[in-house]
Amino acid sequence: MKLVCLCLCLYFVCHGIAGVRASGTYNVRDFGAKGNGVTDDSQAFMAAWKKACASSGQTKVLVPAGTYFLNPIEFNGPCKDVNDLIFQIHGTLKATTDLNKYANGHGWVMFGWLDHLTLTGGGTFDAQGEVSWPFNNCPRQKNCNPLPSSLIFLYTNNTVVKDITTVNSKFFHVALLNNNNFKGSGITIKAPANSPNTDGIHLEGNSGVTLSNSHIGTGDDCVSIGQGNSFVTISGIACGPGHGISIGSLGRYNHEKDVKNIIVRDITFIDTVMGVRIKTWENSPVQTTLQNVTFENIIVKNVGNPIVVDQTYCPFPSCDHSKSSRVQLKDIKFKDIRGTSAYKEAVILKCSQGLPCQGLKLENIDLTSSGKDKAMSICLNARAQFSGKINPQLC
After folding, report:
1. pTM over 0.90
2. Which helix (H) or strand (E) holds 347?
């Protein structure tokens, strides 16, 4: 009798009967993926994902060594009975270069509406963006249609991303949108210095983000922190080439929310256009606040402008300066920042005329010029407090 019961139980588990779902590893090769870099493996990846998402307990999608050609794909949840979902990539994922394959506003690979996802394995996301960059008109046109981002995380909770590489994105390499408790480490991002809008990691609407121990080199911001973010810590990043680490741009759209509790520390910038920067638009449609921000222990090597607060930001030839920025800056601290500036304007503090910066502090700043001109500072509506060594002298 016991033997019969045991056999029945095994049969139910294997066949998913009576609500019992199997957990385990789902290898994309077992679902038909070729991994030859030419055959479209999108359906095989989706089949493996659906099996993993419909299982229970801890489950894994495994991508072995190889080069897998993928059209745009969305790995969405919820995966109701899964406690931990591991997406382990050992190979290289290669994106289609046909822009007609991408829906407007969508990216290449997206993970959405998931809990306890881990993306890891040492694999590479290659978006082949160099083919698409000539079609990017966003640097010249204010109301443009952005190219697709490489890797998007949307409405996820308790996500871990570690030991992955993303190269040559068409637009942003990684976009974090409305996530809670996201941890990223060991991330490598590579794109040429002249590649347009290839931000390394862009954040909007997140709470509880930690990014650490990563190397980012792009044609735009290594990390850009947009509207609606809170409790973000960025540390141990080597940035270059690129435009530095930015909070902003803020104050452009009427749906924007406050940004608060941001820490950027233990960063090295090498040959970047900027170091640490805050940028907000003039003529903001709504009033918002950027509050409680610390930039600390920053090393800059031949960086264009190491410290920037720019509340007159506008990257286009024609800009409306009729009204000042309505983004209120409060409790902003720059501490222990040292190294060399490629331009003479080592420190730029341009605060809003209508809402001047409150609680702007600089402590232990030592910046010298790597060129012929002596390093200097530029100030506008800036009521800064300073302590310790301050070089160059604040205006």
Report:
1. yes
2. strand 345-350
